[in-house]
Design a protein that fits this description.
alpha/beta, 7-stranded mixed sheet, 6-stranded mixed sheet, 9 helices, about 30% strand, globular
Length: about 325
């Protein structure tokens, strides 16, 4: 089998140290979609969510599918959307808490003797222990034929300011206080909350050739980020799923005038996983977003204009950051 697009997610993370509950509804749903069993996939949803009188939803990098008719359309078109004849799912990491479940999986899309390995975050809002209200799928747009480089915020932010680190714990809180330190990322603080072999990456197409014994230079990674975080852009977390080992955060960008003028940044949705090691420090940081890809957006294909997108989650200046001791 010729592997055209590579992923290191399963190779590095799948195994007994990351147990998966295979009877969980998010796993069973995606397994059914991958084997083309639409009727089985539909049984995990109802037409309307349990509360709010809203349609059940599947949101993907290539479209939003609402109600049972939309979920049927998603299930029937999933394999075809990736230009494949069949698909196989390799569950890698599962995080379940707070009424949500996050499955990190590698989907193998196969056409003839060619395979594309696509790493995905699959975030499920649980309706009951066995059913689902909503699924949000994250993967890099370059894996999806015809997908846009623009993923507008999936959440309507209540406030245009960074998330409050007080809702986080341990190394994850320390990381975010270092990331949002004013006037720039506190690189030393982030390095201290990471273990000696903290692995960075797993979802960017360039990560496909990552070796098991290969580790990013964390100080170098965050020194680059310190050039624009949080002065130009910051993250407001909108959902939090933390089982004590993995903390998964869905977030949206808040963009300042400096972010627009200096970096051409736009507010988009993204997701990140922070994994704690046995020593309590971070042993892995896995991020899926389109940061820095604004130049690849074809605005003639979008549902909004560039000018309209610039107004989303825009602030003149960042309202605050985090001080040295985590104080606003």
């Amino acid at each position: 089998m010729k592997i055209r697009k590579k992923s290191a997610l399963a190779r590095i993370y799948a195994g007994p140290e990351h147990p998966v509950l295979y009877t969980a509804p998010e796993v069973l749903f995606m397994a059914a979609v991958c084997r083309g069993d639409t009727e089985e996939a539909l049984r995990f949803f109802r037409d309307r969510k349990l509360f709010g009188d809203e349609p059940s939803v599947i949101d993907t990098p290539y479209g939003r599918f609402e109600g049972l008719s939309g979920i049927r359309e998603f299930a029937e078109g999933f394999i075809r959307q990736f230009g494949a004849d069949r698909a196989e799912m390799v569950p890698c990491i599962q995080t379940r808490a707070n009424g949500r479940a996050v499955l990190e999986a590698e989907i193998h899309f196969i056409s003839g003797d060619v395979m594309d390995q696509v790493p995905m975050f699959i975030v499920a809002d649980l309706r009951t222990a066995d059913t689902l209200d909503e699924i949000r799928i994250y993967c890099h747009y370059t894996y999806v034929p015809g997908a846009s480089a623009y993923r507008p915020p999936l959440f309507q932010s209540a406030h245009l300011e960074m998330g409050d680190p007080c809702v986080l714990t341990g190394a994850v809180r320390e990381y975010y206080e270092g990331l949002h330190h004013m006037p720039a990322v506190d690189v030393d603080r982030i390095v201290r909350c990471c273990g000696d072999k903290c692995r960075f990456g797993g979802y960017h197409p360039n990560d496909g050739d990552m070796r098991e014994d290969e580790y990013e230079d964390i100080p170098v990674v965050y020194a680059r980020m310190a050039e624009y975080i949080p002065r130009c852009v910051t993250m407001r977390y909108e959902t939090l799923v933390d089982d004590g080992k993995n903390c998964i955060i869905e977030w949206v960008h808040i963009v300042s005038r400096a972010g627009q003028e200096e970096r051409n940044r736009l507010a988009m949705s993204g997701i990140a996983a922070y994994e704690r090691g046995a020593d309590g420090k971070l042993c892995a940081i896995r991020i899926s977003d389109y940061a820095g890809c604004e130049g690849d957006i074809d605005w003639s294909r979008e549902n909004c204009t560039f000018e309209e997108a610039r107004k989303v989650n825009y602030v003149e200046d960042m309202p605050y950051g985090v001080g040295r001791k985590g104080q606003k």
